[in-house]
Amino acid sequence: MMRHSALLPVSIIAAAMAGCSPSSQPTAPETRNATAPAPTETRATPATPKAVTDTHLKPTPGVLKTFGDWAVGCDNGLRCTLAALLPEAGIATSSGSPITLNITREPGPAGAVSVKIATDNAQAAQPASFAVDGKPTALRDAAGLAAAMANGTTLTVRGADNRTLTTLSLKGAAAALRYIDAQQGRVGSTDAIVAKGSAPSRALTPPLPAVATIAPSGTAAKLTATQIATLRKRATCTAEGFTPETHALGGGKSLVIFPCSTGAYNLISALFIVDGAGITPAQFDAPAGFEATGADSGTPVKSVINGAFENGVLTSDAKGRGLGDCGVHQSFVWDGTRLRLSEQSEMRECRGNADFITTWRARVIRP
């Protein structure tokens, strides 16, 4: 089913324009002698933008934490999100799709706050109002909602007819918001949500790492029956009835996604690189799926879970359970030598919220 979400932006959009506009003083009228040459106009040479180059930084995704009924985490760029967790009993007995809520705060002094409702129900994804302990909060005031949550016990999401769509526990929300204040360097400053103080904002905006990619080109390799048998043996694959996929990477190389083993809701595929007659295990700069190795930890062949390759991006979608409310989503791009992690989002708690928290981001440089 398609999962709908509504992003409700707002709040702390702070401030300050850095820099001043050029002087607008009028210039004196120009006079010229008929025999004198016209003055030569001098133009400033525009600065050449600094080229973005591959930073070759080893991925270090952020760590998720749980405070009561809220999961929280920040990525390497200090974008932080707290996500509502539902009680297991409520998930099991729900007659429809769970309605969940995430609040994200951007890094830096501006630190915009946004709220997102996620559900399979398109109508429920467009709430009309929020209330904390019965007290209404303006729909488009995300920062005000976050601050109110820190002092409340329940959050109610209401529809256009004032009908209650869902009620979420706020147990742990204050601690999760305080954790975000600390991670973003806002503790004791005026722009903190919970840990407020009188100091000016000291929040930083770390630069994102850059990954240079190779544009996919050429024709994907066609595997022979002998090659397929060899790859199955090398990766100790047991899955039957699946056809290996090959995708052109460029430079004469192709990616092989080789179905290797299955679970109730996960298809684990081994990954190889075909280069002419040579076939080698694909290399990564970060673990893929749940483990650093394939379905069999005794093989050096790496794997992805529910993998797909499209528009030069390899994705892995490791599900912790069939509901899809926990696991790891990853995106990798090819740099000519190995697959590089460009984005990762996670949810470690299997408690109804399938809107995962981003823990790693990179700028992808495409040719």
Protein model, in words:
The chain contains four helices and 22 strands. With 367 residues, the protein is mainly beta. The strands form five sheets. It has a six-stranded antiparallel sheet, with helices on one face. The chain is globular, with a radius of gyration of 26 Å. About 13% of the residues have low confidence.
Features of the shown structure:
6-stranded antiparallel β-sheet; mainly beta; 4 helices; 367 residues
Q: Would you tell me the structural class of the helices and strands?
A: mainly beta
Q: What is the number of helical segments per DSSP (H or I, 4+ residues)? A: 4
- The span between the termini is 35 Å
SS elements, strand count: 22
Brief account:
The chain is mainly beta and 367 residues long. 10% of the residues lie in helices and 33% in strands.
Indicate the topology.
Blueprint: E1 4-10, E2 65-67, E3 70-74, E4 80-84, H1 88-93, E5 100-105, E6 113-119, E7 129-132, E8 135-137, H2 142-149, E9 154-158, E10 164-169, H3 173-183, E11 210-212, H4 225-234, E12 245-250, E13 253-262, E14 267-275, E15 278-281, E16 303-305, E17 308-310, E18 313-319, E19 327-334, E20 339-347, E21 357-361, E22 363-365
